[in-house]
Amino acid sequence: MEHSKQTQFGSSDKKDAGTSSVVNGHCDGMVKRPAGGPSQPPAAESGSQRPVMESWREDRTRSVEDNEMRLPSLAAAYTTILRGLGEDPQRQGLLKTPWRAATAMQFFTKGYQEKIIADVLNDAIFDEDHDEMVIVKDIDMFSMCEHHLVPIFGRVHIGYLPNKRVLGLSKLARIVEIYSRRLQVQERLTKQIAVAITEALQPTGVGVVIEATHMCMVMRGVQKMNSKTVTSTMLGVFREDPKTRDEFLTLIRS
Amino acid sequence: MEYQHDIEINGEDKYLNICKHNGLCKKEKDSKDDTDSNKLSHIEKAYTTILGELGEDVDREGLLRTPLRAAKAMQFFTKGYKETTQDIMNDAIFDENHDEMVIVKDIDLFSLCEHHLVPFFGKAHIAYLPNKKVVGLSKLARIVEIYSRRLQVQERLTKQIASAISEALEPAGVAVVIEATHMCMVMRGVQKINASTVTSVMLGTFQDNPITRKEFLDLTIRK
């Protein structure tokens, strides 16, 4: 897992702008789309001109109206899939399945339509003279594997050392929701959560650990039922000081 | 790939209607000129559309081959449509003078909810009372695989497994219990993480005799 040299908090990755595929190898992949246009997004933005990791401050590009507009073509695509699999889309159990599956998939990717500042963090950053570790652990997480479009689920443990500012606790879980409800890769998800907290609070350090089960490995492919994938991102003093890191890891295990 | 399900179970034949469609439909049989790779590319194109409509950038590195991978994954998840119990059971039925309960439990099961196309998974516990014929034990697990690798409803899945064993072995009784977690309930909708759905089918002695049924349940569900 790559570690970025992020010693300066509070800045977005502007220093990496211009070099593509650094760090996580992609930005969120979100490209602004003209409303009502099913055409491909401006292709010029792909490749090297794409900004690396979008700042958490950027607005998402999907809206609730977008969802409604795109639902019929999503449903049509699911009908094609059902036929391609050899099923009969007209049988009773499958009649409304394309619509249900399309709505479900939009729900599983609703992280694309949520805005961190407006929806999540706005009012919940408080000045507090606390500089001991704050941990929120066992946050249930559900995501979608971007390679197979199959669920990933697991738990997220977050710890941070405040630097005069603390965050409402549920907001940590909401940050997890925003980034996990997308087409994801577990490594990237871990990093995005850590960076978002860093940029919002400028804490002394942040640690994020995710343990998850990937259905793409359990239901197909190698078919290993009990395997779990664990990824972690340690920033700031969690990375530099082994004792802090140790305390965090011990506390999330207990 | 005929889906065979022609006996009546306990006088109920309304089940047959559901079963007939839980397999290749007539329309699909008519268009046999559609080769498998053709179907795969249709599904692949559909996934490309889906990715685009969700607002993602289909040209980014991580998503470049996702439509193909997702299409193949979906075909794997529905491979049960192409398999029949005849194929796997035929050679593994043995004459044995055994009439005590045979249980195979904790069979991992993965299926797809036919309403949301989202996985559900859990364990199946199967028991039967042989009537002069026993079956190779792994065949019970293979029967679970055949019926679970389809677009399913848990109730129907349980029944199909029970009736397949019933037809093949003509035992004195069959019992099937499935405990599963439905991602459509966990990841969306009500979002109840710990909820688990249990369905069971009891045929023959398991249905008529409460003591037999209790013995089965004690040996499987009650840990």
- Order the strands across the largest sheet of chain B as they lie in space: 5-2-3-6-7
Distance between the termini of chain B: 39 Å
The largest beta-sheet of chain A arranges its strands as: 5-2-3-6-7
Low-pLDDT residue spans of chain A: 1-57
Number of strands of chain B: 7
Name the overall outline of chain B: elongated
Number of helices of chain B: 10
User: DSSP strand (E) fraction of chain A?
Assistant: 15-25%
Strand content of chain B: 15-25%
Shape assignment of chain A: flat
Q: List the quaternary state of the chains.
A: heterodimer
Q: What is the H/E order of chain B? A: HHHHHEEEEHEHEHEHH
Rg of chain A, alpha carbons: 20 Å
- Spell the H/E element sequence of chain A: HHHEEEEHEHEHEHH
Please, could you describe this protein's structure?
The complex is a heterodimer of chains A (254) and B (223). With 254 residues, chain A is α+β, with helices and mostly antiparallel strands. Chain A has 8 helices and 7 strands. In chain A, the strands form 2 sheets. A 5-stranded mixed β-sheet of chain A has the order 5-2-3-6-7, with helices on both faces. In chain A, helix 1 crosses helix 2 and helix 4 packs antiparallel against helix 5. The longest helix of chain A has 21 residues. Chain A is flat, with a radius of gyration of 20 Å. With 223 residues, chain B is an alpha+beta fold. Helices cover 43% and strands 22% of the residues of chain B. In chain B, the strands form 2 sheets. In chain B, strands 5-2-3-6-7 form a 5-stranded mixed β-sheet, with helices on both faces. In chain B, helix 3 packs across helix 4 and helix 6 runs antiparallel to helix 7. The longest helix of chain B has 18 residues. The relative contact order of chain B is 0.14. At the A-B interface, helix 1, helix 2 and helix 6 of A face helix 2, helix 3, helix 4 and helix 8 of B. Chain A: Its EC number is 3.5.4.16. Chain A: GO terms for molecular function: GTP binding; GTP cyclohydrolase I activity; metal ion binding. Chain A: It is found in: Cytoplasm; Nucleus. Chain A: Keywords: Allosteric enzyme, Cytoplasm, GTP-binding, Hydrolase, Metal-binding, Nucleotide-binding, Nucleus, Tetrahydrobiopterin biosynthesis, Zinc. Chain A: It is an enzyme of class 3 (hydrolase). Chain B: InterPro entries: GTP-CH-I_C/QueF (IPR043133), GTP-CH-I_N (IPR043134), GTP_CycHdrlase_I (IPR001474), GTP_CycHdrlase_I_CS (IPR018234), GTP_CycHdrlase_I_dom (IPR020602).
